[in-house]
Amino acid sequence: MTDYSPRLFHSDDEIEHLGEGLLARTLERAEWTHEAHLAATTYLLLKRPDVDLDRELPGLIRRFNESVGGVNSDTEGYHETITRAFLKGVRLFLAEADNREPLHELVNDLLLSPMGRRDWPLRFYSRERLFSVDARRHFIEPDLAALP
């Protein structure tokens, strides 16, 4: 695995800004980083039980991408398999986490954990399979190891 130095958060307000900003499509495109994806997902899972992420997350991300001038195509934008893999990873991390407050420290712990690494899905998927058009369009099962 490669070196990984995530951008860490300093306040719960930053996490709330990302989660609520995703919902409202008010984030700047540059704010929507790997760390922001995981922070927003964690926030929504813990603080917004009214949002059914299994059903709504794909549309939230697609609409956000479009709101900042991005596209969701066979080569860029929303990626179903990566999104689903990381959603499982965040849930796995939260199930094992001892403490959930302050939220930004929990998110930082997630980002520093195996489940927070950008390359975490590659523990389960070959690059060819994960970055295929089919994996971008639909959730596909891993080919190297089962997702936890």
Describe the structure.
With 148 residues, the chain is mostly helical. It has one domain. The chain has seven helices and no strands. α1 crosses α2 and α2 packs across α4.
Q: What's the short version?
A:
The chain is mainly alpha-helical and 148 residues long. The protein is built from seven helices and no strands.
Helix proportion range: 40-55%
Low-confidence stretches: none
Globally, the shape reads: globular
- Beta-strand fraction estimate: under 5%
- Total domains, how many? 1
Query: Count the strands?
Result: 0
What is the makeup of the main sheet?
A: none
Gyration radius, rounded: 15 Å
Q: What is the averaged pLDDT score? A: 95
SSE order in H/E notation?
A: HHHHHHH
Compute the separation of the termini in Å. Answer: 19 Å
Q: What structural category do the secondary elements indicate?
A: mainly alpha
Number of continuous helical runs:
7
Record the SSE blueprint.
Layout: H1 12-24, H2 34-47, H3 53-67, H4 80-96, H5 103-112, H6 127-130, H7 133-137
Helix pairs in contact: 1-2, 1-5, 2-4, 2-5
